[in-house]
């Protein structure tokens, strides 16, 4: 059976707004894995998934792996996907054309660099970060020519704001031409019409 992603919505049929869930969706697409999506709500997390997973507090995203077991937390899911599917494009080293040794210093360094980038990406600094990172020849945040997990974090922050106010997301992020161009490249790489079409009108 394919991987199943449990993606958080405010109510059934509502907007996909959760940055961690979108990161996992992007990771699954990036790994070129077939997957299904099932919506879950905060109510589901509290009254169904808490007991099902045997945890004190259930959070989204959750995936059901091919063996039927569950895994929670976007970063744990990303690490699992790279480990379980080494022959698929790597999340932290997207330029690699061969399977990446997950115990290598290069992979560890790439994960640490991604974590450091994520921590430092405050909303107030996005334009400065965009100017510094997407200048010259660089097309993406993770690497010069291919998107990766750091790009997913940036896109998720943008998506969270857009799910609340498309105009504000445009004012804050898309006013910078480099970011707007990056956003278009991300939309082409990962179209996800089922996500974008649920956004409120601008």
TrEMBL record:
It holds the Pfam family GST_N_3. Residues 8-89 form the GST N-terminal domain. Signal peptide: none annotated. InterPro entries: Glutathione_S-Trfase_N (IPR004045), Thioredoxin-like_sf (IPR036249). Coiled coil: none annotated. PROSITE patterns: GST_NTER. This is Thioredoxin fold domain containing protein. It comes from Rhodotorula toruloides (Yeast).
């Amino acid at each position: 059976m394919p991987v199943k992603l449990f993606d958080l919505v405010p109510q059934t049929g509502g907007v996909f707004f959760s940055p961690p869930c979108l990161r996992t969706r992007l990771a699954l697409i990036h790994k070129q894995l077939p997957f299904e999506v099932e919506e879950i709500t905060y109510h589901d997390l509290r009254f169904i998934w808490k007991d099902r997973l045997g945890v004190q507090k259930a959070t989204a995203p959750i995936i059901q792996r091919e063996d039927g077991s569950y895994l929670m937390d976007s970063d744990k899911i990303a690490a699992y996907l790279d480990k379980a599917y080494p022959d698929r494009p790597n999340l932290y080293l997207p330029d690699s054309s061969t399977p990446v040794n997950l115990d290598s210093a290069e992979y560890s360094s790439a994960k640490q660099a991604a974590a450091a980038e994520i921590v430092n990406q405050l909303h107030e600094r996005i334009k400065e970060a965009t100017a510094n990172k997407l200048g010259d020849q660089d097309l993406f945040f993770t690497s010069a020519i291919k998107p990766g997990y750091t790009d997913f974090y940036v896109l998720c922050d943008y998506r969270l704001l857009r799910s609340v106010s498309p105009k504000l997301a445009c004012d804050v992020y898309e006013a910078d031409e480099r970011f707007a161009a990056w956003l278009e490249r991300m939309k082409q790489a990962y179209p996800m019409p089922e996500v974008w079409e649920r956004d409120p009108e601008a």
